[in-house]
């Protein structure tokens, strides 16, 4: 009797370990995550506008159809990346995601405080190599540290009314994302 | 012999329990730290590096990109205020206040996050395009057939999800009560 209970207790404990490890392994095992879905449409280290979110043509689930979206799929192994995005008339935001879809940084046009959002994206190792005086002199230079070498920058511009969608798309078309030449 | 039988039994039960629990939590959308206001639920931490392992696994499985914390916050509703499932063959009324935000959008999706095709190509409203009365209040009618005013078509699908997104808002991790963030009421008006 006692022995039976012990077996059951062991089963529950093991079951818990199986559960936790599968949950933790899911991000690595997922084949249909956002990065994989976007890879066929987006070149590396370049800004690519996505087609408008329409019924039957969604690239990812739960996208906001009121927004025009552009994606820069980045790989920092060749050096830091510079992102320049002019803000649209209504609302523009930039969100940085790791390769595993973790949103590690997001900023909107008002927080950026200028007519263009300018950001430098680099790994922690690349940030450590930036000369200190350079960082001080360029006080208005916003540096974002990416926890992973690869990931996604998602630029979103709101069209407050459907008729303003071309305006939002135009604002995104002027944005760039490229590896900085040393 | 008994030992062999016991360990096989244990391993089987463990695998079934563990995988079953994983499947259940990931398909049902169990995540910690939900901010609940009426029928609306948001997970502010899911838009930051502090995202919990369950939300991380869900996002990887579904392929969505969570709304970043510096961008805004997304509230999901799968039922009305008294717990009725949002059935696309019924009529629902959305009315009330929204928290302070520079812009908001409301969108209707299938349970797995797709848009529902309809003849007027309407999948939601933004705070700018919604028709308001003289006091600045608005009512949205979510129904399968055309209605006057702000009509959001359901396409008659079995169940749908409403997502209310607030952009450039103070609502987030520090929000505790509905007083800080009043969300519109969802009321069933008939089927």
How would you characterize this protein structure?
The complex is a heterodimer of chains A (182) and B (191). By secondary structure, chain A is of the alpha+beta class. Chain A folds into 2 domains: 1-30; 34-179, Sandwich (Immunoglobulin-like). Helices cover 32% and strands 31% of the residues of chain A. Chain A contains 6 helices and 9 strands, in the order ααβββββαβααββαβ. In chain A, strands 1-2-8-4-5 form a 5-stranded antiparallel sheet. A 4-stranded mixed sheet of chain A has the order 7-6-3-9. In chain A, a hairpin with a 4-residue loop joins strand 4 (92-98) and strand 5. Chain A is globular. Chain A starts with a helix and ends with a strand. Chain B is of the alpha+beta class. Helices cover 19% and strands 28% of the residues of chain B. Chain B is built from 2 helices and 10 strands; from the N terminus they run H-E-E-H-E-E-E-E-E-E-E-E. Chain B has helices at 2-28, 53-62, and strands spanning 35-37, 40-42, 72-77, 91-95, 101-109, 124-126, 139-143, 150-153, 161-169, 185-190. Chain B has a 4-stranded antiparallel sheet, with no helix packed on it. A 4-stranded mixed sheet of chain B has the order 8-7-4-10, with no helix packed on it. Chain B has a two-stranded antiparallel sheet with strand order 1-2. In chain B, a hairpin with a 2-residue loop joins strand 1 (35-37) and strand 2. The radius of gyration of chain B is 20 Å and the shape is globular. Chain B starts with a helix and ends with a strand. Chains A and B meet through helix 1, helix 2, strand 4, strand 5 and strand 8 of A and helix 1, helix 2, strand 5 and strand 9 of B.
